[in-house]
Amino acid sequence: MHITNINQCAATLSQYLQAHRPLTVLAGAGLSTASGIPSYRDENGNWQQSPPVQHQQFMQHHHVRQRYWARSLHGWPNLYQAQPNLAHKAIQQLQQAGYIGTIITQNVDGLQQRAGSDRVINLHGDANQMRCMQCGQLTPRLDMHQRSLQLNPTFADHEASVLADGDANLEVDFSQFQVPACRSCDGILKPDVVYFGDNVPRDRVEQAQQALAHSGGLLVIGSSLMVFSGYRFARQAVQAQQPLILLNRGKNRADDIATVKLDSDLSATLLSTVERLLRPPGERLGEPELTNSEGSTAAHKNVAS
Ligand SMILES: [Zn+2]
Questions:
Q1: Rounded to whole angstroms, how far apart are CA atoms 48 and 163?
Q2: CA–centroid distance, residue 191 to ligand 1 (Å)
Q3: Which of 124, 205, 243, 296: disulfide with 259, CB 3.0–4.6 Å?
Q4: Residue 55: burial class (beta carbons within 10 Å; 0-12, 13-18, 19+)
């Protein structure tokens, strides 16, 4: 079943949430683009920019890390300062009401948690945290960013547009860039993110598989499922004869195996679904629940806490 009309999409999604609650959510980059975070891929799953750094390249080559951190000086603040959007908030409300259970996210921005959700699995890690690849110590990315700035003030002066996952479009001579190392052991610091070419930790995958197995089905939001780490959950749902609902515009790797494809704007569809499921009929007119001001208030609260 393939639906494009927003009202029909919201009606269908509401029916699935009522009949199969709680659904497990698998979220992708399309959820965070409205927060100003660029996506690696376009609506059809093709790269919008050059592919991101590979795990082995990052670990093996100092010059790759110099380029990475110089570009991060320009790209990461955008990620760090981003605020949850109305779709994050709608998912949080549906979770709180019991329609959604665990949220598996492929995003590394932490925005679903900052929208107030609990039971979130960061499948690909957390870009705002650093991990020492030698001693394993976790430290805030902000500390790494500030040390990079202090050591390399001239690199901060360039103009660069922001790319996905804290990267930026900067090509200069990076050979003089000073890369900070672990304060405890002098080891290589890496964002606590699963890079392309690396694997999601086994226990994290199993935790997500368990959550899906004990729920009513899978709702994929804003992901084309081009990466296998996400696609495997679509296959798991189908094999277990659970409903698989796709909410994203354009092509999806799971189009052929999905129970229903909701090919519509994800924010509008989720807001309309919240309206249908969580608002008593008499209160629906003249009292918009989700406004921009409410969204930003919630976001500020979460930043402060
Ligand atoms: Zn260390």
A1: 10
A2: 13
A3: 243
A4: middle
Nearest to 36 by CA among 1, 88, 102, 71: 88
124 is an active site residue: yes
pLDDT at position 130 is: 97
Q: In angstroms, rounded to a whole number, what is the distance separating the alpha carbons of residues 303 and 299?
A: 6
| Among 74, 124, 214, 300, the one annotated catalytic | 124
Q: Is 197 left (phi over 0), alpha (psi -120 to 50) or beta?
A: left
Q: Which residues keep their CB under 5 angstroms from ion ligand 1?
A: 132, 134-135, 137, 182, 184-185, 187
CA 213 / ligand 1 centre spacing (Å): 37
Q: Do the beta carbons of residue 28 and residue 221 sit within 8 Å?
A: yes
The pTM of the full predicted model, rounded to 2 decimals, is 0.87
CB 27 within 8 A of CB 103: yes
**Full set of structural domains in the chain with CATH:** 2-304 (3.40.50.1220)
Asked whether the beta carbons of 212 and 24 are under 8 A apart, the reply is: yes
Confidence band for 236, pLDDT divided at 50, 70 and 90: very high
Compute how many other C-beta atoms are within 10 angstroms of the C-beta atom of residue 275.
Answer: 17
Write down how long the chain is: 305
Asked if residue 65 lies in contact with residue 1, where contact means CB atoms within 8 angstroms, the answer is no
